[in-house]
Amino acid sequence: MNKPRHIAIIMDGNGRWAKLKKLPRKEGHKEGANSVEAVVQTALKEGIKVLSLYAFSTENWARPKTEVNYLMQLLTDTLSKFTEDKYKDVKLVFSGRRKSLPIKILNKLDEVIKATAGNKKITLNLCLNYGARQEITDAVNKILAQGKRKITESDIEKNLYQNLPAPDLIIRTSGEERLSNFLLWQAAYSEFYFTKTLWPDFKGGDLQKAISAYNQRDRRFGAR
User: Fold this and answer.
1) Beta-bridge partner residues of 123
2) DSSP output for 92-106
3) If you placed Cys at 11, which of 82, 175, 178, 199 could pair as Cys (CB 3.0 to 4.6 Å)?
């Protein structure tokens, strides 16, 4: 059995979950945060080395201010949990643009990244204020600032937000089947798994089901 080394998840469906239950949208986000905890713990048990979560895109700032403010507070509260003992094996890293993020979030991010730097079993890559086109643009601008006139694929890879293996498996919840500006460079040979399950209902068993489906794939990387 060849388990994926790196799983990336587009966590979609919080708003629809709340609407179906006739609840405020914030309740969907709140239950979605519980799914994050369940999935991280399951990924640890399954021996996954890297887990990337699409938490907040650069486009999400267009949402109502009250919703954005609630999401920022929920993110701060969720980040605080990753210094608890049950996450002692989780190393947090961050992918995204620091600019535009509230100082409270940045301070909490820096605090948790520093506190978890020595943890080794799994790397949790939090994609926050993230956009893949922006990541590639930022990488190119960093290379140009170094004085390079000819840019290689290796140059771009070394200047992405994080130096992580490409995702073996990308999961999207809620029935949508698109990348939505997520890991466009890294996803060149990723396997995809789409599920109609809304993110707040996606728990450890759902992740195991996705891993089982991945294990049935024959990855060829264009070789045949």
Assistant:
1) 50, 91
2) EEEES--TTS-HHHH
3) 199
pTM over 0.90: yes
Tell how strand 122-130 and strand 90-95 pair up: parallel
Mean pLDDT confidence for 27-32: 97
C-alpha pair distances (Å), 104 with each of 130, 149, 190: 18, 38, 34
User: Could you give the CA distance from residue 29 to residue 199 in angstroms, rounded to a whole number?
Assistant: 9
- Domain assignment present for 223: no
- Does the residue 203 lie in any domain? yes
Residue 195 within a domain = yes
Tell me the pLDDT tens digit for each residue of 94-127. Answer: 999 999 999 999 999 999 999 999 999 999 999 9
pLDDT at 27 (0 to 100): 97
Look at residue 172 and tell me whether its pLDDT is greater than 90. Answer: yes
What's the pLDDT score for residue 84? 92
Could you confirm whether 12 is annotated as catalytic? yes
Q: Considering the candidates 2, 14, 34, 60, report the single residue annotated as catalytic.
A: 60
Domain holding 208: CATH number?
Answer: 3.40.1180.10
Are 190 and 222 in contact by the 8 Å Cβ rule? The answer is no
Tell me how far apart the alpha carbons of residues 61 and 113 are, in angstroms, rounded to a whole number: 24
183: which 2 tokens?
């890991």
pLDDT of residue 115: 96
Domain that holds residue 79: 6-215
* Catalytic residue chosen out of the listed positions 12, 14, 159, 168: 12
Count structural domains, the chain.
1
